[in-house]
Amino acid sequence: MFESLSDKLQNVFQRLRGKGALTEQDVSEALREVRLALLEADVNLKVVKDFIARIRERAVGVEVLEGLHPAQQVIKIVDEELTGLLGGDQSPLTFAPRPPTVLMLCGLQGAGKTTHAGKLAALLRRQGRNPLLVAADIYRPAAIKQLQVVGEQVKTPVFTLGDKADPAQIARQGVAEAALGGQDVVILDTAGRLQIDAALMEELQRVKAAVGPQEILLVVDAMTGQEAVNVAQGFNEALDITGVILTKLDGDARGGAALSVKGITGKPIKYVGVGEKMDALEVFYPDRMASRILGMGDVLTLIEKAEAALDEKKALEFEKKLRQNKFDFEDYLDQMRQMRRMGPLDQILGMIPGLGGQIGKLQGADMELGEKQLRQVEAIICSMTVQERREPALINGSRRRRIAAGSGTTIQDVNRLLAQFEQMKKMMRGLTQGDMGLAGAGLPGMAGAGRGGKHAGSNKKNKRKPPPAFKFPFGRR
Q1: Using 50, 70 and 90 to split pLDDT, how confident is the model at 207?
Q2: What is the pTM of this model?
Q3: Which of 30, 117, 366, 467 has the most crowded CB, counting CB atoms within 10 A?
Q4: pLDDT by residue (tens digit) across 150-176?
Q5: Under 8 Å between Cβ of 157 and 127
Q6: Domain 3-85: which topology?
Q7: CATH second-level architecture of 101-296?
Q8: CA-to-CA distance for 311 and 290, rounded, in angstroms?
Q9: CB atoms < 10 A from the CB of 355, how many?
Q10: What is the Cα–Cα distance from 96 to 87, expressed in whole angstroms?
Q11: Rounded-to-integer distance, Cα 164 and Cα 144, Å
């Protein structure tokens, strides 16, 4: 996401870092390039003008031009202003003092309301909530059936009165059903149109009046750029939305919608869709996103993904086996699968500080090679017998030929994996003997990281355990 914009901004800042003291002309030239980068990213012109003006006002002051590290100070100013442009602080959902809380989803047809109603239900369930999905779209063919299928996937009940009832009546009875059934959140999946029209807005206003939702969340496609901003402006004028869910952000290389919505509507982005799976919905943190755009990584989100994907009980068992030097291919496979649950490789690497600016270079063949190697490793291990996984020393020449044939790989691939496995065992043994445990076996810079602010703090201060370790299971060729 934001690949094109991120590359351009990082190139600008790289040139600034190469200079000593900055002149006003240096700053002006850099801001001109930032302005062009934002306009090419399809950011609203008014938003760009205001953004550049705020940076210029701060960046041409004496504190920057005469500072010890002027380039870093300019980058810090851009980071702070970019965070403000994206919304400043994270905007949590508003919950009713007395349940159920009503969340009304609206948007154009095809924006992903039904799918993201399910994703939101799944996220709320992980947070300990008990949601109810309400099918209030009576016009789109199979809309009700789709919501029921989505509800089954995320283990959330769906309330419907069929496609003949009035949407306002469906919403009202859905809320009553939730109150009786003990559900504390109601998610309304409303109808959309191919374009904004009076009939759509009138119906949505009636639904809003019928149930008085705590949140009206507009679902828009990030890939549509400025059109997403125009849609957000139209819905906001008619319904006074409380926030936005941006879908397909993982495929948005430009970022115009994300960078313009708050500035034009004044309403925050609350969630972003970053994939097709039902767990691919993330809370939107403006400061973290700004850091990722500027190539500074996003350690906090990476930690949260690790904590969600990695099983703590298995991690403790894994550490115990490491200390006893009993690490085998079953553990190797389990660790690799847990890592892959964190998401696509490019997304994970993009969150690591220092690697953000390299992701664009890794796209295409190199990134596909990494994913291919992960699948290849899994295929080789799955072609081993249980005994071979637990006792790799048994794997002789004939067994290697059988494993290669069974996994569709070569004997050289099997040999390479066996060599990497032995290297990892030696490394793990050294870490455990140094009493570093799993914290030291994780990603570089991850040990001791907390969630105490924009940058990672200490676990002691935040009273958080370090995330279970994982290692990338393939090396360089």
Answers
A1: very high
A2: 0.65
A3: 117
A4: 999 999 999 999 888 899 999 999 999
A5: no
A6: Four Helix Bundle (Hemerythrin (Met), subunit A) (1.20.120)
A7: 3-Layer(aba) Sandwich (3.40)
A8: 30
A9: 14
A10: 23
A11: 12
